[in-house]
Amino acid sequence: MLTIALAALCLSGCEAPVRAPQADRSEKVGDFPTADRPVATIVSDRWSTEEARDRVDEAETVMDLAGIKPGMTVADIGAGEGYYTIRLASRVGKDGRVLAQDIVPGVRDALAERVARDGLDNVSVRLGEPQDPKLPANSFDRVLMVHMYHEIASPYEFLWRLHPSLRAGGEVVVVDANRATQNHGTPPALLKCEFEAVGYRQVRIEETRSAGGYMAVFRADRPRPAPDAIRGCRVENDSPQPANAPQAKHDMPD
User: Fold this and answer.
1) Per-residue DSSP letters for 226-239?
2) What is the mean pLDDT of residues 135-141?
Protein backbone atom coordinates (compact mmCIF):
# COMPACT_ATOMS: atom_id res chain seq x y z
CA MET A 1 0.00 0.00 0.00
CA LEU A 2 2.86 2.40 0.77
CA THR A 3 4.31 1.88 -2.71
CA ILE A 4 0.96 2.70 -4.31
CA ALA A 5 0.51 5.78 -2.11
CA LEU A 6 4.00 7.04 -2.89
CA ALA A 7 3.42 6.57 -6.61
CA ALA A 8 0.19 8.55 -6.36
CA LEU A 9 1.98 11.31 -4.45
CA CYS A 10 4.61 11.57 -7.17
CA LEU A 11 1.95 11.87 -9.85
CA SER A 12 0.51 14.83 -7.97
CA GLY A 13 3.75 16.78 -7.73
CA CYS A 14 6.67 14.74 -6.37
CA GLU A 15 9.62 14.02 -8.60
CA ALA A 16 10.58 10.39 -9.17
CA PRO A 17 13.04 9.10 -6.54
CA VAL A 18 16.61 10.09 -7.29
CA ARG A 19 19.48 8.14 -5.77
CA ALA A 20 22.35 10.39 -6.84
CA PRO A 21 22.67 14.19 -6.94
CA GLN A 22 21.40 15.69 -10.17
CA ALA A 23 23.60 17.75 -12.44
CA ASP A 24 23.11 21.50 -12.16
CA ARG A 25 20.46 22.46 -14.72
CA SER A 26 19.84 25.98 -13.46
CA GLU A 27 19.52 28.64 -16.11
CA LYS A 28 22.81 30.47 -16.60
CA VAL A 29 22.07 34.16 -16.14
CA GLY A 30 25.42 35.68 -15.17
CA ASP A 31 27.86 35.76 -12.30
CA PHE A 32 26.75 36.26 -8.71
CA PRO A 33 28.87 37.64 -5.87
CA THR A 34 30.64 35.19 -3.60
CA ALA A 35 29.44 35.19 -0.01
CA ASP A 36 31.96 36.85 2.32
CA ARG A 37 31.37 34.41 5.16
CA PRO A 38 31.87 30.75 6.06
CA VAL A 39 29.20 28.19 5.20
CA ALA A 40 28.02 25.65 7.74
CA THR A 41 28.07 22.00 6.76
CA ILE A 42 24.88 19.95 6.67
CA VAL A 43 25.23 17.70 9.70
CA SER A 44 21.69 16.37 10.15
CA ASP A 45 18.19 16.40 8.65
CA ARG A 46 16.80 17.50 12.03
CA TRP A 47 17.50 20.48 14.29
CA SER A 48 16.17 18.80 17.44
CA THR A 49 13.73 16.02 18.27
CA GLU A 50 10.12 16.61 17.30
CA GLU A 51 8.98 15.84 20.84
CA ALA A 52 11.30 18.46 22.33
CA ARG A 53 10.21 21.04 19.76
CA ASP A 54 6.53 20.37 20.41
CA ARG A 55 7.00 20.71 24.18
CA VAL A 56 7.84 24.38 23.66
CA ASP A 57 5.23 24.85 20.89
CA GLU A 58 7.92 25.75 18.37
CA ALA A 59 6.00 25.14 15.15
CA GLU A 60 2.74 26.64 16.42
CA THR A 61 4.57 29.77 17.58
CA VAL A 62 6.42 30.22 14.29
CA MET A 63 3.32 29.57 12.18
CA ASP A 64 1.31 32.04 14.27
CA LEU A 65 3.98 34.73 13.97
CA ALA A 66 4.34 34.04 10.23
CA GLY A 67 0.60 34.49 9.73
CA ILE A 68 0.08 31.09 8.14
CA LYS A 69 -3.63 30.46 7.67
CA PRO A 70 -5.93 27.84 6.12
CA GLY A 71 -5.93 27.92 2.33
CA MET A 72 -2.41 29.31 1.95
CA THR A 73 0.30 27.82 -0.26
CA VAL A 74 3.55 27.42 1.64
CA ALA A 75 7.04 26.16 0.73
CA ASP A 76 9.17 24.44 3.38
CA ILE A 77 12.76 24.81 2.16
CA GLY A 78 15.30 22.43 3.65
CA ALA A 79 12.42 20.38 5.01
CA GLY A 80 14.58 17.57 6.37
CA GLU A 81 12.56 14.86 8.09
CA GLY A 82 9.42 17.02 7.83
CA TYR A 83 8.82 18.53 11.25
CA TYR A 84 7.36 21.71 9.77
CA THR A 85 5.96 20.03 6.65
CA ILE A 86 3.57 17.84 8.65
CA ARG A 87 2.39 20.71 10.84
CA LEU A 88 2.08 23.13 7.93
CA ALA A 89 -0.13 20.61 6.13
CA SER A 90 -2.48 20.58 9.10
CA ARG A 91 -2.47 24.38 9.40
CA VAL A 92 -3.23 25.19 5.73
CA GLY A 93 -5.86 22.45 5.52
CA LYS A 94 -7.44 20.74 2.55
CA ASP A 95 -7.74 23.99 0.60
CA GLY A 96 -4.06 24.86 1.06
CA ARG A 97 -0.86 23.38 -0.32
CA VAL A 98 2.59 22.65 1.07
CA LEU A 99 5.66 22.07 -1.08
CA ALA A 100 8.46 20.45 0.91
CA GLN A 101 11.92 20.71 -0.63
CA ASP A 102 15.32 19.31 0.25
CA ILE A 103 18.58 19.01 -1.68
CA VAL A 104 19.59 15.56 -0.37
CA PRO A 105 17.94 12.82 -2.44
CA GLY A 106 17.77 10.30 0.40
CA VAL A 107 16.20 12.83 2.74
CA ARG A 108 13.70 13.83 0.08
CA ASP A 109 12.77 10.19 -0.50
CA ALA A 110 12.30 9.50 3.22
CA LEU A 111 10.07 12.56 3.58
CA ALA A 112 8.02 11.53 0.54
CA GLU A 113 7.44 8.16 2.19
CA ARG A 114 6.36 9.84 5.43
CA VAL A 115 3.95 12.11 3.56
CA ALA A 116 2.47 9.14 1.71
CA ARG A 117 2.21 7.07 4.88
CA ASP A 118 0.38 9.88 6.66
CA GLY A 119 -1.96 10.42 3.71
CA LEU A 120 -1.13 14.12 3.31
CA ASP A 121 -2.81 14.83 0.00
CA ASN A 122 -2.05 18.55 0.21
CA VAL A 123 1.75 18.05 0.28
CA SER A 124 4.19 17.68 -2.61
CA VAL A 125 7.86 16.78 -2.10
CA ARG A 126 10.56 18.05 -4.45
CA LEU A 127 14.32 17.88 -4.88
CA GLY A 128 16.01 21.27 -5.07
CA GLU A 129 19.58 22.31 -5.81
CA PRO A 130 22.05 24.03 -3.46
CA GLN A 131 21.88 27.31 -5.40
CA ASP A 132 18.29 27.04 -6.67
CA PRO A 133 15.16 26.07 -4.69
CA LYS A 134 13.44 25.18 -8.00
CA LEU A 135 10.11 26.75 -7.03
CA PRO A 136 7.40 27.68 -9.55
CA ALA A 137 6.88 31.40 -10.13
CA ASN A 138 4.11 33.42 -8.48
CA SER A 139 2.98 30.48 -6.34
CA PHE A 140 3.63 30.99 -2.61
CA ASP A 141 2.10 33.02 0.19
CA ARG A 142 4.92 32.00 2.54
CA VAL A 143 8.35 30.42 2.13
CA LEU A 144 9.86 29.00 5.32
CA MET A 145 13.58 28.44 5.88
CA VAL A 146 14.12 27.10 9.39
CA HIS A 147 17.67 26.61 10.71
CA MET A 148 19.10 26.12 7.24
CA TYR A 149 20.01 29.53 5.78
CA HIS A 150 23.58 29.29 7.13
CA GLU A 151 24.06 26.16 4.98
CA ILE A 152 23.45 28.02 1.70
CA ALA A 153 26.82 28.41 -0.01
CA SER A 154 25.58 30.77 -2.75
CA PRO A 155 23.02 32.98 -0.97
CA TYR A 156 22.78 35.69 -3.64
CA GLU A 157 21.99 33.24 -6.43
CA PHE A 158 19.65 31.23 -4.18
CA LEU A 159 17.68 34.31 -3.12
CA TRP A 160 17.67 35.69 -6.66
CA ARG A 161 16.10 32.48 -7.98
CA LEU A 162 13.67 32.36 -5.06
CA HIS A 163 12.44 35.94 -5.62
CA PRO A 164 9.89 35.23 -8.43
CA SER A 165 8.20 32.39 -6.52
CA LEU A 166 6.34 34.71 -4.14
CA ARG A 167 2.83 35.91 -4.81
CA ALA A 168 1.93 39.56 -4.27
CA GLY A 169 2.20 40.14 -0.53
CA GLY A 170 4.04 36.83 -0.05
CA GLU A 171 6.79 36.60 2.56
CA VAL A 172 9.98 34.66 3.20
CA VAL A 173 10.27 33.62 6.84
CA VAL A 174 13.76 32.78 8.14
CA VAL A 175 14.29 31.21 11.55
CA ASP A 176 17.89 31.00 12.71
CA ALA A 177 20.21 31.46 15.66
CA ASN A 178 22.06 34.72 16.29
CA ARG A 179 25.58 33.39 15.93
CA ALA A 180 28.29 33.05 13.29
CA THR A 181 27.44 31.05 10.17
CA GLN A 182 30.18 28.50 10.80
CA ASN A 183 28.50 27.83 14.15
CA HIS A 184 25.14 27.07 12.50
CA GLY A 185 23.52 30.45 12.80
CA THR A 186 23.26 33.74 10.91
CA PRO A 187 23.80 37.19 12.45
CA PRO A 188 20.57 39.15 11.81
CA ALA A 189 22.41 42.08 10.25
CA LEU A 190 24.14 39.78 7.77
CA LEU A 191 20.84 38.12 6.89
CA LYS A 192 19.20 41.50 6.26
CA CYS A 193 22.12 42.69 4.16
CA GLU A 194 22.15 39.61 1.92
CA PHE A 195 18.39 39.66 1.38
CA GLU A 196 18.30 43.38 0.62
CA ALA A 197 21.15 43.00 -1.89
CA VAL A 198 18.82 40.85 -4.05
CA GLY A 199 15.66 42.96 -3.92
CA TYR A 200 13.93 41.98 -0.69
CA ARG A 201 12.78 44.22 2.15
CA GLN A 202 12.83 43.17 5.77
CA VAL A 203 9.41 43.87 7.25
CA ARG A 204 9.99 42.62 10.79
CA ILE A 205 12.27 40.63 13.05
CA GLU A 206 11.59 39.25 16.49
CA GLU A 207 13.03 36.91 19.03
CA THR A 208 11.68 33.36 18.99
CA ARG A 209 13.23 31.58 21.93
CA SER A 210 11.15 28.44 21.44
CA ALA A 211 12.71 28.09 17.97
CA GLY A 212 16.23 28.70 19.20
CA GLY A 213 16.86 32.25 18.05
CA TYR A 214 14.98 34.81 15.97
CA MET A 215 12.51 35.02 13.09
CA ALA A 216 13.05 37.51 10.27
CA VAL A 217 10.41 38.20 7.61
CA PHE A 218 11.09 39.57 4.12
CA ARG A 219 9.01 40.64 1.12
CA ALA A 220 10.20 40.59 -2.48
CA ASP A 221 8.65 43.95 -3.30
CA ARG A 222 11.75 45.59 -4.75
CA PRO A 223 13.16 45.02 -8.25
CA ARG A 224 15.37 41.98 -8.61
CA PRO A 225 18.78 43.24 -9.83
CA ALA A 226 20.75 41.63 -12.61
CA PRO A 227 23.24 39.14 -11.15
CA ASP A 228 26.29 41.22 -12.11
CA ALA A 229 24.69 44.30 -10.49
CA ILE A 230 24.34 42.68 -7.06
CA ARG A 231 26.64 44.20 -4.47
CA GLY A 232 27.64 41.48 -2.04
CA CYS A 233 27.82 42.12 1.68
CA ARG A 234 31.27 42.62 3.13
CA VAL A 235 31.79 41.61 6.76
CA GLU A 236 34.15 43.85 8.71
CA ASN A 237 34.53 43.82 12.47
CA ASP A 238 31.47 41.54 12.71
CA SER A 239 29.30 44.22 11.03
CA PRO A 240 28.10 43.43 7.50
CA GLN A 241 27.55 46.14 4.92
CA PRO A 242 27.00 46.29 1.16
CA ALA A 243 30.27 46.54 -0.75
CA ASN A 244 31.35 50.14 -1.37
CA ALA A 245 28.65 51.47 0.99
CA PRO A 246 29.11 53.38 4.25
CA GLN A 247 29.14 51.06 7.22
CA ALA A 248 25.85 50.86 9.11
CA LYS A 249 25.32 49.03 12.36
CA HIS A 250 22.30 46.70 12.62
CA ASP A 251 21.10 45.38 15.93
CA MET A 252 18.42 42.97 17.07
CA PRO A 253 15.41 44.72 18.66
CA ASP A 254 15.27 44.82 22.43
Assistant:
1) PGGG--PEEEETTE
2) 97
